[in-house]
Amino acid sequence: MFIDEMTITAKAGNGGNGVVRWIHEKGKEFGGAAGGDGGKGGSVVVVGVRDASLLSKYRNKKEFNAPNGEDGRNKGEEGENGKDLEIKLPIGSVITNTETQEKYSLNEEGEKIKILQGSLGGRGNKSFKSSTNVKPTECTEGKIGQEAEFYIEVELIADLGLIGLPNAGKSSFLNEVTKASAKVGAYPFTTLEPNLGERFGYIIADIPGLIEGVSMWVCVPCLIVIGSGMRDIAQSVASGKAWGNMIRR
Asked: Radius of gyration (Cα) for the chain, nearest Å?
């Protein structure tokens, strides 16, 4: 099943807690403060990939949580930071924070955008040590990571367009090479709007049959921008006159 929109919830990692620890030496039970700070929580990052059907793999997974930072350690060592969570999305995805309406767009393969920031870890007792507080007993907890709901919509741009006369077999070809399920029939104008399919990560568009001199009462408006590598534009506009022009560069 092809999915081009979905809503998810995502949460960045919490910061690890700072801890109270002491240096233990022979003859000195509490030799000094040694509690480390907590690690930072992991952030949530979206990554653009060339896979138009990728959202289908997430249809049963709607919650994404980045790892928390690790609590502080002994000997003043900081806890380990949580790894960033990378969510792979198709190129052309527009990610909208449903609360703030802030939008992020993935336009290139490999592009990465941070949508939620992981939080800082808490302070261990070693960080509180001072000339007036030589044996601090305080520490702080890590901060809570950001959390939000996101609406994801994939704005697909075809890399290749199939243009031809009605009943030329465009839909059948699309079904054969992409496993799409475009409607086919033994009569003109079976395709009333563009169908999309994917082959090796590239989007193929089956464009409705374009013919000259179609009546204003029988029209199938169509505007398709064909892939950046081809720089062709097939445009037909329904009006009182004949169909529009075919523009080639």
From this structure: 28
Does domain 1-156 sit in CATH 3.40.50.1970?
Answer: no
Q: Scanning the structure block, which residue is given the tokens 């336009």?
A: 107
Q: Strand 112-116 vs strand 147-154: parallel, antiparallel, or unpaired?
A: unpaired
At residue 87, the pLDDT reads 97
**Beta carbons within 8 Å of 170's beta carbon, 6+ residues apart:** 162, 163, 164, 191, 206, 207, 209
Q: How many CB atoms lie within 10 A of CB 103?
A: 12
Determine the Cα–Cα distance for residues 226 and 172; give it in Å rounded to an integer.
20
Residues 6+ apart with CB under 8 A from 247: 233, 235
- Give the pLDDT of residue 173: 79
List the domain boundaries for the chain.
1-156, 160-247
Query: Residue type at 136?
Result: P
Instruction: Report the candidate in 147, 149, 153 with the shortest Cα–Cα distance to residue 55.
Output: 153
Distances (CA, A) of 60 to 57, 146, 158, 181, 229: 8, 23, 27, 22, 35
Instruction: Return left, alpha or beta for 60; rule: phi > 0 is left, psi -120 to 50 is alpha, else beta.
Output: alpha
Q: Is the pTM of this model over 0.70?
A: no
Polymer length in residues for the chain? 249
Kindly report, residue by residue over 72-116, the tens digit of the pLDDT: 999 899 999 999 999 999 988 999 999 999 999 999 999 999 999
Q: What tokens were used for 183?
A: 């409607």
Residues of the chain whose pLDDT is less than 50? 1, 214-249
Joined together, the tokens standing for residue 197 give 């399919």
Cβ 5 vs Cβ 39: under 8 Å? no
